[in-house]
Amino acid sequence: MAPPGFSFYMSFFEIYGGKVSDLLNGKKKLVIQEDANSKIQVSGLEERIANTEKAMLEIIEFGHSVRTTHSTAANDTSSRSHAIC
Length: 85
What we know:
The chain is flat. It has one domain. It contains one helix and nine strands. About 15% of the residues lie in helices and about 40% in strands. It has about 80 residues and is an alpha+beta fold.
């Protein structure tokens, strides 16, 4: 459990079919760029604050629930994307 007054920001996006989408903001299309210091930046990515373990898990569960899935021979809801939280 996080100490009292502790909070952190979370974001969650997926890469699918060469496109990047924000899983916490209606699958808004995102742009990945490299800045002048050779660091990768994801432009327009929404952040949500988590103050508790429960809030963190709710954010993760929500993002996971909107990921792109399709049926396969082995799994009815196979994830078809790469997700980064």
